[in-house]
Amino acid sequence: MWLILRPSFFMLSVQVRCCSSRRAILYVPGDDIRKLNKALSLDADCIVMDCEDGVATNRKEEARVTIRQWLDEGRASNSTSEWSVRVNSVESDLCKEDLQTVLGGANKPPTLLLPKVESKEHIQWHMGGCQKINLIMYIESARAVVNLPDICRTAEQLSSTAPLKPAALVFGSDDLCANLGVTRSDNGTEILYARQKLVLVAKAFHLQAIDMRVQVLCFDNIPDLDGLQRQCEAGARMGYTGKQVIHPVQIPIVQQAFMPTAAIVEWAEGLIAAFQEHQKLGKGAFVYKGSMIDMPLLRQAENIIKLVSSNTKV
Amino acid sequence: MWLILRPSFFMLSVQVRCCSSRRAILYVPGDDIRKLNKALSLDADCIVMDCEDGVATNRKEEARVTIRQWLDEGRASNSTSEWSVRVNSVESDLCKEDLQTVLGGANKPPTLLLPKVESKEHIQWHMGGCQKINLIMYIESARAVVNLPDICRTAEQLSSTAPLKPAALVFGSDDLCANLGVTRSDNGTEILYARQKLVLVAKAFHLQAIDMRVQVLCFDNIPDLDGLQRQCEAGARMGYTGKQVIHPVQIPIVQQAFMPTAAIVEWAEGLIAAFQEHQKLGKGAFVYKGSMIDMPLLRQAENIIKLVSSNTKV
Amino acid sequence: MWLILRPSFFMLSVQVRCCSSRRAILYVPGDDIRKLNKALSLDADCIVMDCEDGVATNRKEEARVTIRQWLDEGRASNSTSEWSVRVNSVESDLCKEDLQTVLGGANKPPTLLLPKVESKEHIQWHMGGCQKINLIMYIESARAVVNLPDICRTAEQLSSTAPLKPAALVFGSDDLCANLGVTRSDNGTEILYARQKLVLVAKAFHLQAIDMRVQVLCFDNIPDLDGLQRQCEAGARMGYTGKQVIHPVQIPIVQQAFMPTAAIVEWAEGLIAAFQEHQKLGKGAFVYKGSMIDMPLLRQAENIIKLVSSNTKV
């Protein structure tokens, strides 16, 4: 209930979680109430209540209804995580019913994750309501990578009139590899083009870039946390600021690896200082390090500082 | 003559050779009747009767006429290879005459290879006739790589009304390197962007991606077949499913290296099974692994299975 | 004054410096008359009189006026370097005044460098005058890399009516890294996509590709010239033909590393020979190695030969 009844907190929450603050993204099957409850005690930046791949075909309705109830009861209102929902893809024919159920209550999720976005047509649909909801899009096919600038441009344009506000892109490497007919290697050279194009387009449209899913990393059933850290660092070096995880034990490692770099923190501090100075002088828009500064950029900077200051404990 | 008189066989042939089934592509100069005859005994998936770079300027007319006669006489009707024709580029001013001669008879080649496609204008010309002919486009300049999505989109649109059906892209690395002013290295790092963009765009438009020509690999005049295998595997790891060869001895190595991966075979088997199930239920279009399944995808899957089952001998 | 009063020399100069001939690009703060005078004795291919990052905010007017005076007095008329001017970015609000001052005299600089070009809107402004001035655009943000083909297409179209003639792209890796939130590594893997896309788009539009700034390379205050050479060679292997330098001692190393390759020289010699042959026969346009040859390509070829023959001393 906090989402609606405490609008100031909601705004804060949306701001805090925007851009570079979703470091560890954890999936929970939407039909599994036990796992949902367990996730309440976890510290993932973003928890995804899943209707898609994590839910069997004959459990889709169960997932929708469970998530709706979860939202209605405000179960996660004390959680510091962003409790979001992943619906099924537009082409799956399950999407419409997912949306109607999941968004049909008074309490909307702050963020919606839409898998298999392949073209601008996939996001040119209209939702009722005027409350802003973040949109995270999965890019997981060759066609999606080709159409990526087009998709982001359309999402940006639509956000001025529709409630969906583009917030992030997820690099869906597993489906992309299947589409390309390739096997994902340890260092991912075979998908370097797609992985770097995604970061670039994301940054061009002020979206967070969330890296590919952690590969299963185990030695004799002991999770290979060093390998995980190497994978995170490889993504961070390219500009990714978050990663999808498959097990709670991976959360702190991912979070630490995706802490903003010193250069980013410096940029954010400088921007906020410059903004405050211009505010004092009564000036509106201004240029910082050659870029025209608008509110989204200011919020990004604020998020980075909040993230750093609230996670020095990590 | 089989192309026209045996339409059912022709259809089969086109299907078998579509998408991922052209593993080894061998060039034969169109004016060299001795080499054409020799190629009848070779097992290349695709044999290219060449009018372009393999033929001297003053032998162009000889090449056209020889190829036309070869087609008229149905010389390759017992071959399991796809006997195709490469004409000269649109900008060369030889192309029109090539097409008139080569396509002027009753027996059309199943596939036409068009070099140096640089923009959509290069494929916006019209051919008479209504028999479908596969179109393989060479991407071999910076401008072509930049315009690639545009070229493929146009080819796809044209195929609904014109007889040319886009089937594959060839990565022409030698001309591209010359255009970029670079020397091709052993691992090809300097053209990684172009090489991976080509695969992605090809897959986005359901086209086969055919990798760059084998580099001359010899030690003391003995062909370096290990080096060849490494080159093939590097391409296959990125999603290429075929390669251009320069000597018959290279054919079996290339064919083996480009056998579909287990993941691809599994995808194909699953898709065909799902299709048959939906057919039984009387349903038309359906979704398989998140993608709407249409006939081209079904045919791709069938080709993969045919390729695997007919080549376990290799 | 030579720029206006000696048009034939100016034409020659513009030709000599077009395309692949700017190997070492050296910046001099536009407000520092001592450094400007010192640069007269240096052998950089291109000397940039800077109004942008090299000049403090409160010295911008000083820089403009100094540069204007420098041009008016024809101070560099005996220099073999290309004395160009870098203005501030369009979004900085300093650009208009820079242009009015710097281009307001009789002696225009042969080349204008425009930083932070991010979209075609950034170059859709009009300058008076009809004398052609080369335009070098800095690509230094994610948005710029995404919009790059669009920017170059617009610049090409505008050049038919406006005095600005697109000549080169500069890969501004430092600002790009800041925008992506990444730290530039020694081999630059994290920006490989952007670095190779820039070369490809540049070549597609017949522009020179100028590589990223030399990283500070010192051991105990002794410049690491071996490291510099490795960095130059890495760029040259991808098709870059010039680099920005920060110290005069780096000039000869950069110049040597970016000498045209044997393959390029052979291409250029062949093209010029073919052109002369066609001229004798009274033919106009012709095809050389599959490309329609126009005057820009001929000039590129001539520049390469001039560059090689005038620098065998290096």
From TrEMBL, chains A, B, C:
Cofactor(s) demanded: Mg(2+)
Annotated signal peptide: 1-18
Keyword Magnesium: yes
Source species, domain of life: Eukaryota
Keywords of the record: Magnesium, Metal-binding, Signal
Domain HpcH/HpaI aldolase/citrate lyase: 23-248
Lineage: Eukaryota, Metazoa, Ecdysozoa, Arthropoda, Hexapoda
Record protein name field: HpcH/HpaI aldolase/citrate lyase domain-containing protein
